[in-house]
Write a structure and sequence with these properties.
The chain contains five helices and ten strands. By secondary structure, the protein is of the alpha+beta class.
Length: 224
């Protein structure tokens, strides 16, 4: 009987130890998960910084260009002092208009250099105090006369966010997404086969059809 009693005692003791170890392990895992959950948001938050220097303006503006073209593109826009300047000289086909630091949120646009006369004219008219419709009408006349031109197929990318914080390590702006534009002057739904309103995220549609500013839009899909 003694050997049997000892065997039963050892079995109960072993089971009890395993139970205690499992509880301790479970408690440790739970604590680790809690620490990770509590610390992670703080780490992410610390990485995000406001775009409040010319260097940050340039770094975030470059995110609007295709990655392969960022090193050699030209970047223009308002600096932190409110002056419209060239933030970076470039040699390739891309020009980037940096975010205006005085405006809420973030928006940088990268477009083909052939569009610069058209874009510059719009900026000049805006500085004169012209309304959006006035700018549209004036450029329409100048496009018709040949004073301004747009090469069909010229592209523009807009990198934008409602937020204005960025990750200094990656230069990515918090919550930023992209919109793609392909200029097709005077094209219509009939000439392209595209709808005049978006039917779903990331589906092409034509905006300002039949006008000098007709363009194909690719509306972004939310990261969520």
């Amino acid at each position: 009987m003694k050997p049997l009693f000892h065997l039963l005692f050892l079995s109960v003791l072993f089971t009890s130890c395993n139970s205690v170890e499992q509880k301790q392990s479970s408690a440790e895992e739970s604590t680790a998960e809690k620490v990770t959950t509590e610390v992670a948001p703080e780490i992410v938050k610390e990485q995000l910084q406001p775009i409040n220097t010319d260097r940050a303006l340039l770094a975030t503006a470059l995110m609007a260009a295709p990655e392969a073209g960022r090193a050699d593109c030209k970047v223009i826009g308002y600096n932190m002092a409110g002056e419209f300047v060239t933030l970076k000289e470039g040699t390739n086909e891309f020009i980037i208009l940096a975010d205006d630091p005085k405006k809420k949120g973030f928006s940088a646009a990268c477009y083909h250099k052939s569009l610069e006369p058209f874009m510059a004219r719009g900026r000049a008219l805006k500085l004169e105090g012209k309304s959006g419709q006035e700018i549209f009408d004036i450029r329409a006349v100048e496009m018709k006369s040949g004073e301004l031109t747009i090469t069909p197929g010229s592209t523009l990318q807009i990198y934008y966010s409602a937020d204005s914080l960025y990750d200094a390590a990656t230069s990515e702006v918090e919550g930023a997404i992209r919109r793609y534009v392909i200029y097709m002057p005077y094209s219509t739904s009939e000439s392209t086969g595209l709808p005049e309103v978006p039917v779903a995220s990331n589906h092409p549609w034509i905006m300002n059809p039949g006008t000098h500013r007709a363009h194909i839009m690719l509306s972004p899909m939310s990261k969520k």
